[in-house]
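Sanity check

After download, print the first record. It should look like this:
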Amino acid sequence: MRALIFSFIFPFLLMTALLQGACVLVGRPMRGWIPALVLSLIAAGIVLIPVEGYPIGRWLISFNANFSIPLTALLLSAVLKAFFGMQLLDGQARAACWIFSIMAGAGLYPMALGLGRMDPYTAGWGFSWLFVLVFSATLVLLALKNRFAVVLIVAILAYDLQLLESSNLWDYLIDPILVLVSCIGMAGWIVRKAVDGPRRKT
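Expected structure tokens:
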């Protein structure tokens, strides 16, 4: 039941973000508690509309079986920033998320598809080197006061509570959409640095 309820969180946030974007396009950005409440209720209503016996929110499973905790955190951060201007995940946290996701994706997906003798996905079941690696990364990020450490802690807690419809830790840490978003985010950051560099020298 917990996993079923939690499966609506990402679709709800995504619909809220889409409604926010639509309001910006028509020149009516929605900021503050009352606009947030209105758009949230509309988003919740849309996500729960049944289509062929299933709520719209559940249809996203056909595109991605599990939306990872970091991806959900990135979307939540974007929604909160649009409503209230608060930075749940600052630039350093987003950069850490991108790097973590790209490295994890590069290590997981090619080998999971058979490009190697080892399948790291199996390490997500039970205690393994994956838990040690994530725990170590979390400690380093905490020492650096990077907010992405909190996201990793939440991912571990979500795994313990089985909030996703998966019993594998990998699915709580990354998913294909997160890796794609991270690649786009990192590429954008590199381009901005390349463009801003010459400007600062002139």
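If your output differs, re-run the checksum step. Summary of this record's structure: The radius of gyration is 18 Å.
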